[in-house]
Amino acid sequence: MKMITKYEVYGLWSVKKDSSCPLCKAKLELVPKEGHYNSEYWGRQRDDGMLLYCCPEGCSLKKAEELYLYGELTLPIEKVKEDEIVYIDTLTWDGLTAGASHYYGKIRQFNDSGLEEYEVSVVLDEHMAAALSEPDYTYEVGDTSERFDSEKQLFARAAEVYKKHFPKAKVLVDGSDCAVEPQLVIDGPPNYKATNNTMLQKFRSHGEYTGNGIKVAKKWRKLFRK
Q: I need a surface site. Which of 27, 120, 153, 157 has the fewest CB within 10 A?
């Protein structure tokens, strides 16, 4: 196993021990618990019997994604059911209303009981309390707030808490279950997230609803809207 530390190596979660790298065809091996770029992903291990494997030769996940998008290979994408996906609705008046700069979010899912949704909130530490405080209102350490300084901060917090509200969930998406084009996957199984988000980048770079953009969206629907 080459101990790659500077880039993400092609890999996947699997119960099988006989998967191979689509680039070099080497048999995938267990990712070391420490000292490898992919080691941090052990922190996402679920109690479902799956183990984390990667290419022992260090083949790049980015390279595999590029070849996949151009039809030269197919990445195995982890199966995710619709009831294992949670969506986040984001609200901000930043750039629309004078003085508005914060982000708010709700995580939601339609299930047998109908729509279930929760506000994304956080208990403030010293830094966050200071950042959110304004001349007419001061936040204290330990206060709970639904306001976030940035979309990135909101998404990071949502990724931390969505499985607590929806224990069966595997994926967090910024978007809608009605979408017909790629959407941002904030959290999810490695290949599922990487393939989806790379297709989203290609969709945008092609001009979205131009010829090539439409082709990417069509391919995305075949993979993620089965």
A: 27
CA dist 219 and 182 (Å) reads 10
Tokens (6 digits) for 199: 């297709």
Percent of the chain surpassing pLDDT 90: 36
pTM tops 0.70, yes or no: no
The residue that leads in pLDDT, 77 or 221, is: 221
What are the extents of the domains in the chain?
A: 1-76
3-state secondary structure the chain: CCCCCCCCECEEEECCCCCECCCCCCECEECCCCCCHHHHHHHHCCCCCCEEEECCCCCEHHHHHHHHHCCCCCCCCCCCCHHHEEEEEEEECCCCCCCCCCEEEEEEEEECCEEEEEECCEECCHHHHHHHCECCECCCCCCEECCECCHHHHHHHHHHHHHHHCCCCCEEEECCCCCCCCCEEEECCHHHHHHHHHHHHHHHHCCCCCHHHHHHHHHHHHHHCC
Count the Cβ atoms, other than its own, within 10 Å of residue 20: 12
117 vs 204: CA distance, rounded Å: 29
Contact between residue 9 and residue 52 where contact means Cβ atoms under 8 Å apart: no
Q: Which two tokens stand for residue 72?
A: 């030269």
CA 163, 175, 64, 222 dihedral sign is: positive
Question: How confident is the model over 49-101, as pLDDT tens digits?
Answer: 788 999 999 999 888 877 765 445 556 677 888 889 999 999 886 544 544 56
